[in-house]
Amino acid sequence: MTTVRLPLFPLNSVLFPGLVLPLNIFEERYRAMMRELLKVPDEEQRQFAVVAIRDGREVAPSAPGLPDQTAQPAQGPAAGFGDDPLRAFHEVGCVADAATIREREDGGFEVLATGTTRVRLRSVDASGPFLTAELEPLEEKPGEEAGALAEGVLRAFRSYQKRLAGARERSLSSGTELPDDPSVVSYLVAAAAVLDTPTKQRLLEADDTASRLRDELTVLRAETAIIRNLPSLPATELTRGTTSLN
């Protein structure tokens, strides 16, 4: 089994391959991570892994709170994730390639990264200034009938788009031609659909592209039916996630 070790960035959201991820970095553990990534030569990839939080807090508490107003909040790279960080995170995540890391005057960072490949979380190390993880890269297998399923998902997605956009023939793609590669379609739709984290995580973990597309077809049809009477829901950007405040 081939593994890689990368800095680990837990979020309350799911990152998919191809999705653009803006980050506003202000916690010291993630500032330290970005300072370390900036040491990587410009010609090399500045990579870290993103995993969705199963049980924990994206931003560590910074002041005493309920039930004990005198108890000091936990400090360190695993703060907010309990005694065993591995159990706090979903098992499958995504490698992110930081194309831009800009340091602000206050010492924080503005980061723009893109999801690249799926990985399985094998272990978490909290001994340094930020979390690192041993990760197993996951192969993306096509599965059976992925091409035909992708066509069906795109049709269902366009119908879903129009419902989200208020049934005014306004597309979320803003005139951009949608891809025809089944795996790209599966990730793009999973990222763009307005779904809860457990559903998005399930799509990320799918055994192969065809399985993900089948699941998406079911989800899109159900979601389209639900929002038929809710035409005021806002459209979302296809390949860009909301800025995460670490």
Give a summary of the structure in a few sentences:
28% of the residues lie in helices and 23% in strands. It is of the alpha+beta class. A hairpin with a 5-residue loop joins strand 4 and strand 5 (109-125).
The CATH topology of the largest domain is given as Archaeosine Trna-guanine Transglycosylase, Chain: A, domain 4
Largest sheet: 5 strands, mixed, barrel
Q: Which spans have pLDDT < 50 for at least 5 consecutive residues? A: 62-68, 167-175
How much strand content do the residues show?
15-25%
Principal-axes geometry comes out as: globular
Computed Rg = 19 Å
User: What's the helix-strand series?
Assistant: EEHEHEEEHHHHE
Describe the 3D structure.
This protein has 246 residues and is of the alpha+beta class. The protein is built from six helices and seven strands, in the order ββαβαβββααααβ. It has a five-stranded mixed barrel with strand order 1-3-4-5-6. InterPro entries: Lon_prtase_N, Lon_prtase_N_sf, PUA-like_sf. Keywords: Hydrolase, Protease.
Q: Which descriptors apply to this entry?
A:
246 residues; alpha+beta; Methane Monooxygenase Hydroxylase, Chain G, domain 1; 5-stranded mixed beta barrel; 6 helices; 28% helix
